[in-house]
Amino acid sequence: MTMTWFLGGLGAIVLGGVGSLLSGRRAHLASAFAAVGTVLGAGAGLVAAFGVLLGGATAHLDAPWAVPGGRLTLTIDPLAAGFLIPLFVLAPLCAVYGAGYLAPAGRTRRLGAHWFFFCGLVALMALVLTAAGGLLFLAAWELMTITSFFLVAFDHQRPGVARAAWLYLAAGHLGGACLLAMFLLAGHWSGGLDFTRFSALAGLDAKPALLLFGLALAGFGAKAGLFPFHVWLPDAHPAAPSHVSALMSGIMVKTGIYGVLRVVTWLPPPPPGWGMSLALLGIVGAVYAIALAIVQDDIKRALAYSTIENVGLIFMGLGFGLWAAAIGEPAIAALGFAGALLHVWNHTLFKGLLFLAAGSLAHGAGTRELDRMGGLLRRLPFSGALLIGGSMAITALPPLNGLVGEWLLYLGLLRAGRAADGLTGLLPLLIAAALAVTGALALVAFTRLAGTALLGQPRSECAANAHEAPWLMLAPMFPLLFGCLLIGAWPQLALRALQPVIAALAPGSLPALAEAGHELGGVAGVAWLLVAVAALTGLVAVVMARRRPLTRDATWGCGYSAPTPRMSYTASGYAELAQRSLMPAWLRPEVRRSGPRGPFPHVARLWQRSLDPVLHRFFEPLAWRLGDRAVRLRWLQQGRLPIYLLYMFVACAVLIVWSLFVSGDWNPL
Amino acid sequence: MIVTTLLRLVLLLAFAPLMLGVIARTKAAFAGRQGAPVLQPYWDLGRLWRKGIVVSRTTTWIFWAGPVVAVTVPVVASLLLPMGALAAPLSFEGDVILFVYLFALARFFTAAAALDTGSSFEGMGAAREVTFACLAEPTLLLGFVVLARLADGLTLNALLGAHLAAAWGSSGASLALIVVCLMVVLLVENARIPFDDPNTHLELTMIHEVMVLDHSGPLLGLIQYGAALKLMVLGAVIMRMVLPVDTGNLWLDAGIFLGGQFVLAVVIGTIESVMARLRLARVPQILVGTTLVAVFAVVLVLR
User: Fold this and answer.
1) Chain B nearest C-alpha distance from A236 (Å)
2) Is the dihedral of CA A627, A633, A635, A637 positive or negative?
3) pLDDT digit string (tens) for A287-346?
4) What total of structural domains would you count in chain B?
5) CA-based nearest distance A279→chain B, Å
6) Are A118 and A16 in contact (CB under 8 A)?
7) Cα(A499)–Cα(A520) distance, rounded to whole angstroms?
């Protein structure tokens, strides 16, 4: 029954995509097909996923598939359901938002292909999360990369978009290659590509297991945006339309996290070193990414870096959980896994919200540059308030949901630090301190983002003439903010729903989870109290203001009588102190300035841009060097047909001989 | 329980501005002046409360949320924190983390309210406030980590329990380092010399005061009252570490708590009198140093 709901949902989504592909020039029709199909399909999918998560029964499908060695097997177990829920919550909202967002573009171009790929991406992500065979998984994974490539490249005539899309495709394929190697090795060692067979991997030695773990981390990490494989993310997110950025950042990167978790369930229990290495990699990446988020000029690029930060935090929680399980502390491991998984859900909600709200701002003001925005809260009151809500949630401020996930992680880290002695205890405590640094830096990044975009005065003509988004774009954002508030107010419910997933990852964790849920009730209680006290104080302030004379005047400029918006603090100015006093030189943006000089000075200019240091100092030089080496192989390219036919003949012959040799049917001696 | 809670609220809400008066009086004594009466902060608050309000035309509801949150957060945070020997009415495992993040909420809205005016001065102050907090927040957390190693539990009640008196004997070095670190955090967070000057409004080295340039009348009063509450709440952490005395008598405990707060106020006044304000570029360096000292304290207590 569960599987029927799920397959019906997939069918509705695919039908929506096909319908929009056939709509031809009628862009409205194409958008409507996709939105309706995704909403209906996701609703059915949610029924299936909640059925598994709350009912506890795993759903299976096993059908023959005309591929050598392949059967079409799908499984919805608690782990898959835990990731399907954010997918099916976010995807329909993105589809509805996209219908409004693309309406202006639809007047001049066809949208059928875009919506086809959008629906395809949603359906393929659902397949990736439920596939129970290596072949199906790899096929869905690669198609997911390709469909999302076309979505990123939607505005390919805009400068930089095509390059960002290619970078994404290259990163996706390099990651895919690692996964191919991993699945082939795993299939070789376990005797089949079915996931049920992979349980045989639990008997593997340490070295092959480490190889599989490393390949999974590189392959899935490239999709998830795990530092240092995150390089495609900061370019691809600003390039894509906002509803696509929200979908990619909110849930597609999480499929990488799902992949790592899935692989971990097959492997033998990892030694403590693996978990701690993963935790350190995660937290280093989080600090790195949030520091770079502070210096971005592009609002969506800043959000993309914040995604890398949050993915880092999630991996930190998972690594910490693995470590704690390995040193025999299941109660602490439960806190690490619970914090990480709750953060997966939370991040889907608030990052989806933030990307959609940023899209409204860019849509209304016609620019993505923070320095050209300003004063948008007066012009876009709803989108602005939603962006502020999302910023509070992602900065982990009470009473919203961002805090509860991070709170569980802190609790686990501090308990581990209390329980262990010496260096074993020091590492979790230092990670907790780094988590505090991340939180404080996130506050800089998001007061800067919300403050310079929404508050103050407009810094450009386009910001002054900005308009509120249409209701089709506003409506999908409210459920996301509502979700943030709901998990902030009743975190126990979310933890209760995730319990089967955590129990699958950390056996013997149920008592610890029940206790953590009880304490989360305390956090929520304080959040309620906070809202109540703030409401009371606010009421006093409002009543008092009505009884006093209220004058509206210009902002106090310290006596200067002709202030202009150009004098207000810009986003670059806001970040300047942090970038000078907190960041090492290699993280700082590239700055060029030409001050006024001489008796008849020219206009002074200041120009700065922040390129990703890992991409520009490591991967790009590496790619160039490899490219230079590869030039030596150019003689292979003779440009004559017979030569290529010869290559094919030789390749076929070698393959035939090799396959006979391997299967043992042929023995020339 | 109810009596204790009410008494704690009265102590906080009624006596917090007095600390500002004591600090001002101490500074006056050092400067050889007679100084304003100790109750002057109350008169100032009353004067602001009766005034009209001038609001900038560029501002939105965020501008009003800043003062409201600035008062709300210390009040709610105080309910998690033992004030002297008066145990916190709200207590659960891990409340210490919520305590730290509550102040982040206050910072978010203070900075946002400052940016809402579109003034370059206030933007500057907001940028400084949030940047320095990046170094102060981990120090605060590491301080609590040291306390957590010495206590049995992760509630603030347990962290700041009566066992601290014995802990000074066994881990005195760590505790002393942490007291110094938390003192630095207190001075930074409350905009005190040598990091900031609460008395200047229009100099380029200030942080907190410049963020509230455009708030006037009762809104400014709320902010100043919130600042006094925050000083008392953060001061309560330090004074409990220095004076871990439990007498068992409610009124005596309350008296000890108040006495400790006034000693702290005199100490702050003394620091403000004998030190010059640091150059802005030095502030991050000092804060990084403090964080490292806090890490060292953690290492000592792990040994």
Assistant:
1) 29
2) negative
3) 999 999 999 999 999 999 999 999 999 999 999 999 999 988 888 999 999 999 999 999
4) 1
5) 18
6) no
7) 14
